[in-house]
Amino acid sequence: MASLWRYLLGGLGLAALLAGVLAVVYLTAPHAPQPSSDVGRSKTTANKLFVATFEPEKGVILQGELESWLLTLKTVEGAPVEGAAITISGGMPQHKHGLPTSPQATDYLGAGRYRIDGVKFTMSGWWQLHFAISAAAGSDTVVFNVVL
Predict the structure, then answer these.
(1) Residue 134's Cα: distance from chain center in Å?
(2) pLDDT averaged over the chain?
(3) 31 pLDDT exceeds 60?
(4) Are residues 4 and 75 both part of a single domain?
(5) Is there a contact between 52 and 42 (Cβ–Cβ < 8 Å)?
(6) Which of 79, 143, 73, 132 shows the shortest CA–CA distance to 108?
(7) Does 59 share its domain with 26?
(8) How many domains does the chain have?
(9) pTM of the model
(10) Is 127 exposed, middle or buried (0-12, 13-18, 19+ CB in 10 A)?
(11) Shared domain check, 68 and 19
(12) Chain centroid to CA 75: how far?
């Protein structure tokens, strides 16, 4: 009977040790980033060269459908930015995957407005769209958070 208790206590000790190791691993492991509360559609770029505004062309976000969005670029003084080269990337930071499509700036509509075609959000959650902008004033970046 004494050996049964010895095995039982040994098993409980091993279970406690395993629980402790798992707790240390969990508490020290890097966690996925949390959604930003900054979901504004207009913001100054990282180096403060431009003011960018990003909005769906139809006015609403349609999950699971290809959409066109409008990116409006102005200088900080308010003048429209013409002839900009724009590249787009992004994805879901919490899921650690990129965009399901390759959005591109396809048209310049005048007054600093650029059509971005190929935007698609396939699921609910926190998405980020990164824009790299090169224009006469210089190169800059801006990130927009979209939470569905």
Answers:
(1) 21
(2) 88
(3) no
(4) no
(5) yes
(6) 73
(7) no
(8) 2
(9) 0.76
(10) buried
(11) no
(12) 24
